[in-house]
Amino acid sequence: MAFNTTFKTGITDAVTSLTSAEKLSMQNVIYGGVSEISEFASKYNVLTGIRNGSKVPIILAGNNYGALSASDNDCSMNECDLGDTYSNKTWVLGAYDCRLPICINSFEEDFKLFWGMYSQTLEDPTIEPDKKAFLAYVNYKAQQNIQGALWRTSHWGDTTSANALISKNNGFWTEAEAGDGVKVTIPAGEQTGEQIYNLLSQAYISAGGLDWFDESKLVWKLSNKTARTLVTWLNTLSDKSMYNCDCIDPTKVVAGRNFSIDNLTIFGIPVKAEREGDESGKVVGQNPDHRFLLIKESNLLVGTETQNHLDQFDIFYDKKDRKIYVDMAIEIGSAIPLDEYVLGTQATA
């Protein structure tokens, strides 16, 4: 059973007898500070109808200054081509799924009271009015789980890993490590704000001399902790007196902060610090603070085999088992098709 049977112990100790007193219901619940998971597809370039093993076509259509050779001014002409070069990478899609079984008859009476439910008879509980609130909650939680899996696999997937949560596809960080973009080494240990700034400066200078560099199309991918450390340091700098950098200007200390993660740009390039990427990395033993990426957003691609969405979801009742089943599945692959990025990584022990 997917829902544990210790509901009474876990949430109802505050009342003497729920069943008799009926003091606890869904309408009276106070939720703790839980952040919702952002919809993944709204943040990244998603390509549908992709098959596992198919190629990511790339046309490297740079400017060709070597076209048109000298002519003899006769009836013949020089043969030429357009000067385009081609490259490709292969999509590696990974399938992840789970099934949630729900037997309402096995719920404690206090649990059913909490949701305003009654014992199931032979009817389909998915269409029963008293199950509506509970099933809405199940649907919400399932959708959040799907989004969490999308963030986790798209960022941290690694086909060389033994971890079943990420082993079926390669994520952005794996792609960046395997590619031939510029690499910057992050020193071991925690980085101060000034050290982070210097590393980003090194990455910025490294990219500035390359043909693909275009500030208007680039983003920094930083962890939230890295971005917060940088913001704190920058705000501290702004507190210093303009006349003597060793002195603190009290008026600046009490004023509103100049920098925040939400509006942070480094060297004119916006920072993309995503809580979901950080938290999903920690689930699979990855430290998001040990890496950063300077890259075009158009160079971060996500592929899926389905035609119009990233996930598959179904909720149904099996009359024979007398259980509700919630099926959740995704098939996903990440690609960085062009080696046009700067990756900062810190070797792990």
Specify the structural class: alpha+beta
- The largest beta-sheet arranges its strands as 5-13-9-6-8-7
- The helix-strand sequence is HHEEEEHHHEHEHHEEHEEEEE
Strand content: 15-25%
Low-confidence stretches: 4-34, 249-256
Mean pLDDT: 82
Q: Based on DSSP secondary structure assignment, what is the total number of beta strands?
A: 13
Question: What characterizes the major β-sheet?
Answer: 6 strands, mixed
User: What is Rg?
Assistant: 27 Å
From the spread of the alpha carbons, the general shape counts as globular
Distance N terminus to C terminus? 40 Å
> Helicity range of the residues?
25-40%
By DSSP (H or I, 4+ residues per run), the number of helices equals: 9
Explain the layout of strands and helices.
Blueprint (H helix, E strand, L loop, with lengths): L6 H5 L6 H4 L23 E3 L7 E6 L24 E6 L3 E9 L6 H7 L16 H25 L15 H7 L3 E4 L7 H16 L9 E5 L1 H15 L11 H5 L10 E2 L2 E5 L1 H9 L7 E6 L4 E3 L7 E8 L4 E13 L5 E5 L4
Parallel strand pairs: 1-10, 5-13, 6-8
Antiparallel strand pairs: 2-3, 4-12, 6-9, 7-8, 9-13, 10-12, 11-12
Features of the shown structure:
9 helices, single chain, 6-stranded mixed β-sheet, 349 residues, alpha+beta
